[in-house]
Write a sequence for this structure.
């Protein structure tokens, strides 16, 4: 039985800056006091912490308000899908530079009722007028802040489909926690402040964005309360009218008008290219259920996101290659990632005929595995031939030209949620760049995405990721759920552009091959090899492993931070372990429903 009256906790900022929640006295649907096991029931403080262990349900997101919104839904009897939509909408308020209703994303869901894994593709689409050459010759930086890069939003359709198929709450109910956070406000933390500061120049170039995020001309100060009443009103109307308000109605018309004629601040010298989006593109949008990808790794079934994401196929192929090797360490992790990226770049996109089955076959993995030697292979590794005919050791084709890679930022966000029935959600949501395309829809309180910059700009004959009418740009998002003997074992995911794939893979290698616990596996320093000459690595990774790996031919380029993962593991003794980042992106928030059985 679901409590339809979702009420939210009060955020309290303590001296010293830590944020906690106290819960006003709430009644359960039947009017009973809340279970005494819940920390909030006793007015207990709920603190932002990276690891939580317990029972009955677990949540990990990058943000305490969003985790709390999800936990409140679970506590009232909602399931993991209900909680995921509530948390995603809340992230649109508190993490608006990574997530929002005008973005897109991928949900992977383990349904405990039938033991099946489902996925929902809410990826943005290109307008019908977009062709393979629409982005050609446009400087990447210019596309980032433009109407042209805004894809047709997918999140709203995805939320509605997820609730309709698997949820128990109405759309309006699921939006309620976000409406409350947007209305009453939340405390600006360092990450929020820094993300505005990093975007200040382009935010200032749009009247609507400057008005919302640069009040008084400067980023909101840390520790102050930030309210977004316009977004609260947007969510309220959306809840009442449903997604049609966006896909066929007034909100959609306003999005199209903003994309076509961005509200550029008078006097700005920025060249802001208009977009190609039409109301008919919005009306044509569908969120889609797709079969998940699946590979088996040492007896565990690893489920991921199929195209248009390359997350599931690339993580899956790399795991298959690792399994075919005699031993697995960090060298093997980097080399298999290199090979899997070579194949991803050549074969995966939103096109018919992606050879998914072959890319994920053991035969192909074995053929690829024999290219892994004692030393790092030459760059770039050529793509393999996932054609169904495999030799134990086919010599590598000559190296092709090194692929140019767009910069990978820390944008996007990932959450994991489990419910009392054993349902599990792994969900990546994004507006692409931190701050999306930088353009707030006037009066509506949300930023537009710039997801279409994930297309290959071209010219690039034969590239499966060139833009096209109605096409979804290839993603790297890799929400992942692992089952063992048909029961959930863990879920994991991360933001970080193409580094999402390597972060998920590295966490699994850390956990399964390097003897780490899940909290250790997330906290460990990261490196990301994506078939480029240099491997990006966090300074601590280079300090710890650089000498040994450099001796084997790896070349590292330091990068301050890779990813911001969240995970949950079902521990052997029946406890749930929710895990978020201890440090990266300001640290995340893990919560469990009950600390005791
Ligand atoms: N647009 C990216 C992707 O789908 C996600 C955003 C990011 O993390 O860069 O791969």
């Amino acid at each position: 039985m679901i409590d339809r009256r979702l009420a939210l906790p009060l955020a309290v900022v303590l001296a010293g800056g830590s944020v906690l929640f106290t819960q006003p006295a709430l009644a359960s649907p039947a009017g009973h006091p809340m279970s005494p096991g819940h920390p909030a029931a006793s007015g207990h403080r709920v603190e932002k912490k990276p690891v939580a262990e317990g029972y009955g349900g677990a949540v990990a997101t990058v943000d305490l308000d969003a985790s709390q919104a999800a936990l409140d839904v679970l506590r009232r009897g909602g399931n993991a899908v209900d909680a995921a939509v509530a948390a995603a909408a809340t992230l649109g308020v508190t993490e608006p530079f990574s997530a929002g209703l005008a973005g897109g994303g991928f949900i992977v869901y383990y349904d405990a009722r039938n033991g099946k894994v489902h996925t929902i593709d809410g990826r943005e689409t290109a307008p019908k007028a977009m062709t393979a050459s629409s982005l050609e010759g446009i400087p990447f930086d210019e596309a980032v802040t433009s109407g042209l890069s805004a894809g047709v939003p997918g999140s709203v359709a995805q939320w509605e489909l997820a609730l309709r198929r698997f949820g128990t709450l109405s759309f309006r109910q699921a939006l309620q926690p976000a409406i409350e956070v947007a209305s009453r406000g939340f405390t600006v933390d360092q990450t929020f402040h820094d993300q505005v500061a990093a975007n200040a120049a382009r935010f200032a170039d749009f009247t609507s964005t400057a008005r919302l995020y640069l009040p008084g001309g400067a980023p909101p100060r840390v520790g102050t309360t930030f309210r977004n009443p316009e977004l609260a009103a947007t969510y309220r109307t959306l809840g009442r009218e449903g997604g049609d308000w966006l896909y066929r109605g007034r909100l959609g018309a306003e999005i199209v008008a903003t994309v076509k004629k961005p509200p550029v601040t008078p006097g700005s010298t920025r060249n802001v290219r208009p977009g190609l989006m039409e109301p008919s593109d919005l009306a044509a949008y569908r969120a889609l259920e797709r079969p998940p990808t699946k590979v088996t790794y040492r007896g565990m079934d690893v489920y991921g996101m199929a195209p248009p994401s390359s997350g599931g196929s690339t993580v899956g192929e790399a795991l298959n290659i690792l399994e075919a090797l005699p031993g697995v360490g960090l060298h093997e992790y980097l080399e298999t990632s290199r090979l899997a990226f070579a194949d991803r770049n050549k074969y995966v996109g939103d096109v018919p005929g992606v050879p998914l089955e072959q890319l994920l076959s053991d035969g192909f993995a074995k053929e690829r595995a024999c290219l892994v030697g004692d030393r790092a292979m030459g760059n770039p590794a050529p793509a393999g031939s996932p054609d169904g005919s495999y030799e134990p050791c086919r010599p590598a084709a000559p190296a092709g030209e090194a692929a140019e890679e767009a910069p990978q930022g820390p944008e996007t966000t990932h959450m994991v949620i489990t419910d009392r029935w054993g349902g599990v959600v792994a969900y990546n949501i994004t507006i692409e760049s931190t701050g999306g395309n930088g353009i707030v829809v006037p009066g509506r309180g949300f930023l537009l995405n710039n997801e279409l910059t994930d297309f290959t700009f071209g010219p690039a004959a034969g590239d499966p990721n060139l833009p096209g009418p109605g096409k979804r740009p290839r993603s790297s998002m890799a929400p992942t759920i692992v089952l063992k003997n048909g029961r959930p074992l863990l879920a994991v995911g991360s933001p970080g552009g193409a580094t999402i794939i390597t972060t998920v893979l590295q966490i699994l290698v850390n956990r399964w091959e390097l003897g780490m616990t899940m909290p250790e596996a997330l906290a460990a320093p990261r490196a990301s090899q994506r078939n480029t000459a240099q491997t990006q690595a966090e300074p601590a990774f280079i300090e710890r492993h650089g000498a040994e790996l450099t001796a084997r031919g790896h070349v590292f380029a330091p990068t301050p931070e890779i990813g911001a993962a969240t995970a949950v593991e079902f521990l052997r003794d029946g406890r749930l372990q929710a895990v978020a980042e201890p440090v990266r992106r300001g640290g995340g928030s893990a919560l469990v429903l009950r600390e005791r059985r």
In short: The first helix runs from residue 64 to 75.
